[in-house]
Write a structure and sequence with these properties.
By secondary structure, the protein is mostly beta strands. It has no helices and 56 strands. It is about 0% helix and about 45% strand. The mean pLDDT is about 90.
């Protein structure tokens, strides 16, 4: 437009999308838009038939013009779609990927720029094939058979996972897929974690693995069956798989059963040492056997067999194990090493066997002091560092079965055949003696004792009364209180939960009730109802319950039913029904999980149940990580060593 004349473009009418330019007298119409290009999707992007393809193109305008951008751009292929303006020369729309065939797809957009048609192409891939997904579980470990049987006898549970085990959940797919714990059905995602696969994937297979810790799952039953599967999951193209075929996972609390070949007699309440090793004994007439086992139920040494009947629960100290034994002609308080080697007899019981329970104390010099009462009413005190045995004749006569607890050099003992509780103190020296027993009537013929603070308590039944009692533990043994008042059903062996300052006695009875009775010391002391079970046991529950470290209460009835209750007894958590194990007449023990002989506080504990009815010792996996380490008297004879003595610290067989 030289010379300042009139711009010739003012007289030119250009076609749509073009504009006029003039230069030095020359003028003409040219295209107003110079380029069309894809900005989305990326080249090579993969799309499935269930996913729309988001398309965006950019139209570039010649910088010399201010022509308005058109309202739309056409997408010609693979289907005709109008791309709408979104501002700044950008145009967007969506293509249904399901209308295209499998394989490479060319997207083609076009725009008529007046003198030419601008085009743009972008290569993508159409994936129309859904992935195929399968789920599998790593198999449970092989189970032992024989004298130690690890297979749960319930139908379909012989090869179940144990409650304390873990499993690998393996998801395999025909192409890459996105799988998370939330993709699994039948398992709570909160208890399932991504893990490295135990083995690699086969060629052309894509794997994702998870670890399932069965101990983490709420298992409000003895056994459970889970149906596991994978929900529909998408491949990278958005194609959803079908749900995988379900896989069955069975989980049980059953750990093992040890055949003690001891049917027809009495298997004693087991003791557990600080390394998790088990000791128990068997009595049938004048014969019996002692068993020294590891936590897996295997014999640690050759068992001590012969003509001796093991007539008391074992008592374990830091160095030794003690039993009351009976031969054809006499009885004795026998000492063994913790591995099972016979060592000595601390006391010979003058022709009568020790019965009931023994209790352990320690002298100032560190000697084991073992207290008990024989069947003739002779009070015995054995000292592991002295050859003498201190004996006192209570004059109670023959035929009684006594239970004993102790503190310091004082023993408390009561009989299941008389209404007396007695207290006596031993003195070791040049002329070792017992003090004359101080006795008090209890009305109840005692099955078991507890000792906490300044109180001694027991449970049992007399001719017309049943329940528990509590008395002062000082020399007076007065201020008796009984509970429930007027109950005639025999009560079992109590435990004491809560605290020494606010104790609660928990015990069963002949009716299968499990009872909580709070006790307040005083002149006289008093009991109060602290809650009964809402669901009874099937049969009489006279053995001592067990309190776990988490507050769970475990009880075993005479017919072999095993029950787990909340601490207030309001809810039964799970049951091993009657009929799985034989009859039970001695009390269970509870240990932590073990890695060899070391406590493993990351895993569930083990409840040990002796069945005299079928001659087995059973190991059951429970959720408590061992015995309560804080309750005043959480099990039979207080601790897993059966010391019967509150002077010894708890915690050897429990976890915080």
């Amino acid at each position: 437009m030289g010379g300042g004349g009139v711009d010739p473009c003012l007289t030119v009418d250009c076609a749509p999308n073009t504009f006029c330019v003039s230069d030095g007298g020359a003028f003409g119409c040219i295209a107003g838009f110079t380029e069309l290009a894809f900005t989305s999707p990326d080249a090579g992007a993969v799309y499935g038939k269930s996913r729309e393809v988001a398309v965006e193109v950019q139209l570039t305008r010649d910088g010399r013009t201010s022509l308005p951008f058109p309202g739309a751009v056409a997408l010609e292929s693979p289907v005709a779609v109008t791309l709408g303006a979104v501002g700044g020369g950008r145009y967007a729309g969506k293509v249904d990927a399901g209308v295209v065939s499998e394989g490479p797809v060319t997207l083609r957009a076009s725009f008529d720029a007046g003198f030419a048609v601008l085009t743009a192409t972008r290569q993508v891939v159409s994936d129309q094939t859904a992935p195929v997904v399968t789920l599998s579980l790593s198999p449970p470990p092989l189970r032992r058979v024989g004298t130690v049987s690890e297979g749960d006898p319930a139908a379909n549970y012989a090869f179940a996972y144990r409650r304390d085990e873990k499993a690998e959940v393996r998801v395999e797919a025909s192409e890459p897929v996105v799988v998370t714990p939330a993709s699994l059905t039948g398992l709570d995602a909160g208890f399932t974690s991504l893990a490295s696969c135990q083995r690699g994937c086969d060629a052309g297979v894509f794997c994702t693995c998870f670890e399932v810790d069965w101990a983490s799952y709420p298992l409000n039953d003895f056994r459970a069956t889970y149906a596991l599967a994978v929900k529909p999951v998408e491949d990278l193209a958005g194609n959803a798989s079908a749900p995988s075929a379900p896989v069955t996972a069975r989980v049980t609390r059953w750990k093992w059963a040890k055949d003690l070949a001891a049917v027809g007699g009495v298997i004693q309440s087991p003791a557990v040492d600080r390394q998790g090793n088990l000791v128990t004994g068997f009595a049938l007439g004048a014969s019996g056997r002692a068993y020294f086992l590891d936590s897996a139920g295997q014999d640690r040494s050759s068992v001590d067999a012969g003509s001796d009947a093991f007539v008391t629960a074992p008592l374990v100290s830091a160095q030794h194990c003690y039993f009351g034994i009976r031969t054809a002609t006499s009885g004795a308080l026998a000492q063994f090493s913790l591995s099972g080697a016979g060592e000595s007899s601390l006391c010979v019981a003058n022709g009568r066997d020790p019965t009931g329970t023994f209790a352990l104390s320690l002298s100032d010099a560190g000697a084991d002091l073992v207290f008990g009462v024989d069947q003739a009413g002779l009070v015995l005190a054995g000292n592991s560092q002295r050859p003498d045995c201190v004996v006192y004749d209570t004059g109670s006569g023959a035929g009684n079965k006594f239970t004993a607890v102790s503190s310091g050099l004082t023993a408390y003992f009561a009989s299941g055949a008389s209404a007396t509780l007695s207290r006596s103190t031993v003195t070791f020296g040049p002329s070792s003696t017992w003090s004359a027993p101080v006795s008090n009537s209890t009305s109840l013929y005692t099955k078991g004792l507890t000792l906490f603070g300044t109180t001694v308590a027991g449970g049992g039944a007399g001719p017309s009364v049943g329940g528990v009692y509590a008395l002062k533990s000082d020399g007076s043994l007065v201020n008796r209180a009984d509970y429930p008042v007027g109950m005639s059903s025999p009560a079992g062996i109590p435990i004491v939960i809560g605290t020494t300052a606010a104790p609660v006695l928990v015990y069963g009875n002949q009716n299968g009730d499990l009872i909580r009775a709070s006790y307040t010391a005083g002149d006289p002391g008093t009991f109060a109802d602290a809650g009964f079970t809402t669901v009874k046991a099937t049969a009489a529950t006279l053995t001592a319950p067990v309190l776990g470290a988490d507050g769970t209460i475990y009880a075993v009835d005479a017919s072999g039913g095993v029950y787990a209750y909340t601490n207030d007894l309001s809810t039964r958590l799970w049951t091993l029904p009657v009929g799985t194990i034989g009859t039970v007449n001695t009390s269970p023990a509870l240990d932590t999980a073990r890695a060899g002989t070391t406590k493993d506080c990351s895993r569930p504990g083990t409840l040990y149940i002796p069945s005299s009815g079928d001659g087995h010792l059973y190991a059951i996996i429970v959720d408590s990580k061992g015995l309560s380490g804080t309750a005043p008297w959480p099990k039979f004879q207080r601790d897993d060593q059966n010391t019967g003595n509150p002077d010894f610290p708890l915690g050897a067989n429990s976890c915080p």
